[in-house]
Amino acid sequence: MGHSSLEKIIALQRNPANIRNLCILAHVDHGKTTLADCLVASNGIISSRLAGKLRYLDSREDEQVRGITMKSSAISLHYANGGQEYLLNLIDSPGHVDFSSEVSTAVRLCDGAIVVIDAVEGVCPQTQVVLRQAWLENIRPVLVINKIDRLIMELKLSSQEAYTHLQKILEQVNAVTGSLFTSKVLEERAEKNKEEEEKEGEAAPDGDQVYDWSAGLEEADDSHLYFSPDQGNVVFASAIDGWGFSIQQFVHIYSQRMGIKAEVLLKTLWGDFYLNAKAKKIMKGAQAKGKKPLFVQLVLDNIWSLYDAVVTRRDKEKVEKVMTSLGVKVMARDSRHSDPKVLLSAICSQWLPVSRAVLSMVCEKLPSPLDMAAERVEKLMSVGARRFDSLPEKTQELKKAFLQCSSEENAPVIIFVSKMFAVDVKALPQNRQRPLTQEEISQRRELARQRHAEKLAADQMAATEGNKDHGQPAGLGTAKMESLTLKESKPEEEEEQRETFVAFARVYSGVVKKGQRVFVLGPKYDPAQGLSTLPENCTASDCATEVPYLSRCSMESIYLLMGRELEELEEVPAGNVLGLGGLEDFVLKSATLSTSAACPSFAPLNFEATPIVRVAIEPKHPSEMPKLVRGMRLLNQADPCAEVLIQETGEHVLVTAGEVHLQRCLDDLRERFAKIKIAASEPIIPFRETVVRPPKVDMVNEELGRQQKVAIIHQVKEEASQSRLSDNLHVDPNGLVTLTTPNRLATVGVRAIPLPQEVTSLLERSSELIRTLEQMNLSLREGKNLDISVGTMDAIAGLKAQLENLLQGRRWRSAVERIWAFGPRRYGPNILLNSVEGYQRPSVWQCLNRGGEVGEAGAPAAGLRDFDSSIISGFQLATLSGPMCEEPLMGVCFSIERWDIQSSAPSQNQDSPLDISNEGLAEVHEASPAAAAGLNQARRRADAALADCYGPVSGQLIAATKDACRHAFQAQPQRLMAAMYTCEIMATAEVLGRVYGVLGKREGRVLNEEMKEGTEMFIIKAVLPVAESFGFADEIRKRTSGLASPQLVFSHWEVISSDPCWVPTTEEEYLHFGEKADSANQALKYMNAVRRRKGLYVEEKIVEHAEKQRTLSKNK
Fold first, then answer.
1. Which residues form the Tr-type G domain (predicted)?
2. Which of 7, 190, 586, 731 is most buried, with most CB under 10 Å away?
């Protein structure tokens, strides 16, 4: 990059009205990076011949090998359009589902997006995901329909068929956008209706009730949302051949040539219009009259005929005619080239350059940083339960700074860091080798000559004196010394060759200067608390007061991101994307930086992919463990989606989003961060344990009688009687488990009930809300006041109403009010129910009516309150690791039906305190005040004796509750739940059978298959267990010769229908399965694999029938 152009970009950064921050979003392999290459080539950074082949923004080696983008990278481009100069901060993002977290980091920093769609494949799963991400972040998209050359060369469509196909693609994209818009309007309408109902309820209840069933969609204006070529937000392109156009370009050409007004042609060039040559008019109804639409006649036919002449028939005369009519000149070597595509791209890149079409659309249609919507600002500033109105006044004033995007001296600096990325220290601009000037070259030459002359003189002196004592020349000694010093200094150099982190960020307000000190706001930072603690007008440089979740740092260096390179800057004004150095010790993955303590922490990023693939990692050589720990810490910081944790067993576990992501993380650990050999375990597959309602039929579909249920209870009783708890445990035939603590002070009765599927899903979706509810209850118990937004309170009330609606029937009567706790970790998808007679405890929903009930929080007896937490702790432990294979429980309700506590210890220990109190009572009438004081002391001693047993009792009660829950779980039919992926596969008809074969072999289940209109492609939607998914993508590609590629996204948990503990009991089952029933039981196979990995006992026979079978052939 030339020095002058760097100065040009610095000058353009000062004018936010002409800045465009945009990212390129698409499904994998739809041509994002090729399009980015064409745009980069327009600035002369790479050769236009290499555009599409170089993939400039894919700077990693594995990105080039695999041919997919794995990280989002930014570059700043300069473009002149309509007499104005623009600065475009372009971010290329990955399309693979494993790296969708990188898309989230890119989208947050942008104001607009280019959505790229393959003209053959159309709207794919990941296209829908990126459109939703753009919608959630309130950024405006424009559309590029890419790979139109495939319609000509591969599908061999005529121009008329291609036009119909392109119309369908536009309809599909607009349908996705329309559904997002509809859901938003309906949500707003529901809120509005609720407010109106409340007002009407307050005003007058009587009068005629008129129901308004309009959804609000009629009034809502959605015209600006949809993609339409006549609006100028669609470009048709083939990035690999270097051409692309918007309708406006052809309107400009034909309006002059045909003498038709540009406005008329713009409205009619796309749509059901045709040209009546006789009347010289544009008329409607091309389809009905069987005429060619204008778009086909004036646009597509020209492109089709060009491809036909250049690529298909290679007609030199026609090509020359076309070139003269277009006014295009091509170099002789291009026209003589053996590959016709070279000539084609040479003609097209001059006639319809894709960079011009896309960049002019970006400049005209995408918003500048000054046009940021107020709604988006409020969304960014209000985190979680906080509402924008409830923020302090100073914080609300910062909204103006956002909207003005001011770069004045007094404007507060606000920066958002979306991710940290690792850079080799050598690649930093300050360490890069710069070209030497002529003066420096001559100085170095002179120095080298002097050194050489001195060395010669020293050697001559040594030769004349002679070195007989040592028997070696002095020159050799000095050479050895030099080599030694070199060897010693090498380890230091190696230490220095480490990775450094650069923050990928955007300035929303103010000017960022090198060396400036700012506040780093953690995700839990509360601006109200910060403002009250810090002195007035306090800045990051002069303030030393400690505030929770607030730290200070200085920005050591500021970089301009230029794809593979960084350029150092002194300052960056508002509205720009930049890189910040020196933040690795203060920012983990993302953060908000500001010079104002009133600034809140921004809303967290929306990650679409859930990390679910876990592997345990250890170094090949145990002595290198510290290097591995350091390497994993760096990896955790460098990857927005990867998680690193240490399990209770001491294993270092890496959690990633999928197989490709896992492979990239392991390669990074080996080659960049740890630089050691590591061993990774087989993937650790997560399971859940649950109970189901007793089955109606057995394994051979025979109806079950009473004897089967009794057999289950007897089996549990037998197992329990063998265990050490046999004296204390009682199992009721109905599944109620009663257990007494070893010291006989407490008895707990628990029953396990399966929760309905809808309730489990609701609890899983609402985990964050339940966590907020738990925090609010904790604050109420401690007597703190919490400023919670109305939205959060409504959400909690809505959750309660949904639960009441779903938990219907005799068994669940008033169950929602009796919920004791959620678990595991107090927000999981399991419920503890209070069914103890006569025990009224505060409801978990007490925050909803906290006005009246705060004072009653301490109403229950003190002893019960103390032991109440022990019951909850026992439940949390039981739900965290189930009895089948120590995996968390899911969808189980534990109902505590009996809870007896003897408040006194056994009688002999209690005699003396009781006697003291009786005597005291008798004497109190006659005795002096001194005697009364003695009585109080004796009572205090008695209370202390009782309090002493709290420690052991609470511990034993926790253990008893946990064991009771586990036994109650085992008394019900138990099942394993497997994590499931949804799998979308695009395949042609020839390989459909093979795809089905691979899915069937891996326990997959096809949900539906549909043929994509206008193509030979089938879309297969299936679900596949995560446990069976490893190597699935590779196997599909091998079996189908690369014609089908799956996209796996974590979807849900599903109960495995087979019982892992099943043994044949009826005669039919014996006949069908044999005595040992050793046919493959999928659930048992998974359960034993998990137990084996965790070192638990596995019930299996290693050798059976040890006699060797001899066949006749072996005996010869």
1. 17-370
2. 731
Q: How far apart are CA 164 and CA 1101, in angstroms?
A: 65
CA dihedral 868, 872, 877, 881 (to 10 degrees): 150
According to the 3-state scheme, what is the secondary structure of 207-245? CCCCCCCCCCCCCCCCCCCCCCHHHCCEEEEECCCCEEE
pLDDT at res. 702 = 60
Distance from C-alpha of 415 to C-alpha of 575, rounded to nearest angstrom: 10
Query: Which residue is associated with the tokens 């120590």?
Result: 886
- Assess contact for 913 and 935: CB atoms under 8 A: no
Query: Which residue bears the tokens 């730290």?
Result: 551
- Residue type for 555, please? M
Closest listed residue to residue 590, CA positions, set 170, 200, 106: 106
Angle in degrees, 0-180, between the axes of helices 862-880 and 950-970, rounded to the nearest 10:
40
Render 970-994 in DSSP notation, one character per residue: HTS-EEEEEEEEEEEEEEEGGGHHH
> What is each CA distance from 84 to 11, 79, 232, 1001, in whole angstroms?
13, 8, 19, 60
Rounded to a whole number of angstroms, the CA Rg of the chain reads: 37
Write the DSSP string, 709-768: HHHHHHHHHHHHHHSTTTTTEEE-TTS-EEEE-TTSSEEEEEEEEEPPHHHHHHHHHTHH
Q: Position of tokens 């009826």?
A: 1066
In this prediction, residue 989 carries a pLDDT of: 87
> What's the rounded Cα separation, in Å, for the pair 248 and 265?
9
* Helix, strand, coil percentages in the chain from 3-state DSSP, rounded to 5: 45, 20, 35
Give yes or no for a contact between 976 and 1060, defined as CB atoms under 8 angstroms apart.
yes
CA-closest candidate to residue 529, choices 675, 395, 331, 682 = 395
Q: What is the pLDDT of residue 1114?
A: 55
pLDDT value of position 219: 66
- Tell me how far apart the alpha carbons of residues 723 and 739 are, in angstroms, rounded to a whole number: 13
| SS3 state of residue 537 | coil
Asked if residues 612 and 1052 have their Cβ atoms less than 8 Å apart, the reply is no
Question: Which of the residues in the chain have pLDDT under 50?
Answer: 1-4, 204-207, 209, 468-497, 706-714, 716-718, 720-725, 851-864, 904-949, 1116
Q: Comparing C-alpha atoms, which of 831, 828, 834 is closest to residue 880?
A: 828
**DSSP 3-state of 914:** helix
pLDDT of residue 214: 57
Residues in contact with 930: Cβ distance below 8 Å, sequence separation at least 6, in sequence order: none
Residue 454, pLDDT score: 93
Dist. CA 41–CA 563, nearest whole Å: 12
Q: How far apart are CA 836 and CA 741, in angstroms?
A: 18
Give 554's Cβ-side CA count (13 Å radius): 7
DSSP annotation of 889: B
The pair phi, psi for residue 198, each rounded to 5°, is -60, -45
Q: Pinpoint the alpha helices (H) of 466-515.
A: 474-496
Q: Which residues contact 30 (CB under 8 A, 6 or more apart)?
A: 95, 116, 117, 118, 121, 124, 127, 146, 147
**Pairing outcome for strands 571-572 and 591-594:** unpaired
Q: What is the DSSP letter of 905?
A: -
How far is the C-alpha of 373 from the C-alpha of 1051, rounded, in Å?
A: 33
Amino acid at 986: M
Q: What is the pTM of this model?
A: 0.80
First to last CA, the chain: 80
Q: How high is the pLDDT of residue 797?
A: 87
Residue type, 609: A
Looking up tokens 């270092």, which residue turns up?
652
Reading the block at residue 859, the tokens are 């109403």
Long-range contacts of 546-551 (CB under 8 A, 24+ apart): 547/597, 548/524, 549/521, 549/522, 549/523, 549/524, 549/525, 549/601, 550/519, 550/520, 550/521, 550/522, 550/525, 550/597, 551/519, 551/520, 551/522, 551/586
**DSSP codes of every residue in 1070-1082:** HHHH-SS--S--H
**146-169: burial string, b at 16+ Cβ within 10 Å, e else:** bbbbbbbbeeebebeebbebbbeb
Query: From residue 635, how far is each of 701, 841, 959 by CA, in Å?
Result: 52, 47, 39
pLDDT value of position 59: 86
